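Entry 12.
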Amino acid sequence: MKKIIFMAAALLMTGFAAMAQTIQAPQYEDAIQVSGKAEKKVTPDEIYVAITVKTGDIKGQSVDQIESQMKSKFKAIGIDIEKNLRVTSMANAPKKKTDIDTKRSYELKVGDVWTLNSVFTTLGDMGIADANVTRVSNSKMEEYRKEVRIEAVKDAKSNAETLAAALGQSMGPAVWIFDGGNVYENSPMPVMMRSKGYVMDSVYEAGTAEQGLDMQDITLSYNITVKFILNRK
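Predicted 3D structure (tokens):
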């Protein structure tokens, strides 16, 4: 019985050794390893605004009344509130024996900086002080991420061709690629609003009253490493 167990263990170890040899990366004497990078500017078309309304924002009006007025004004500037405005939280706290202090938070999605300007102007005129941009994105972001990765690979190939030519050699096929997988996304930082106007961040520019806010683009960047065969002379 012991002999059978020993033979089975030996066969198993032999199988592991064969497998290790099979998956071992091939070695190339004549090869060149280079890095490639790419960057792309993307204009946000999905801008998310957090808005909080509370008792006392507009004297003599309840939160329900303020919400109704806010929705009406958003519709007037072309926002589809059914699709782009949602309640994210609600809180009620006793203020006095007969009063309730209410706070309600919303998330609003707008498609461009001009609509964002109109939203902030509307909220400011109403006296709603608590509003800020929480994040920005683009509806075609996945497509743009793929484009950046492809451009990074092309850049790596171009770099390899340049170096190979400097050696008086030609470049062969790629044999190894290190793909980190994550495209770095540098988005504009949020801007906040107070009742007296906008609080500008460094990524926003203060223009004239007509220009309002000017939001910077999202920057996508990516790095990749590729190894190519070097053809002998």
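Annotation: The chain has five helices and twelve strands. The longest strand covers residues 218-231.
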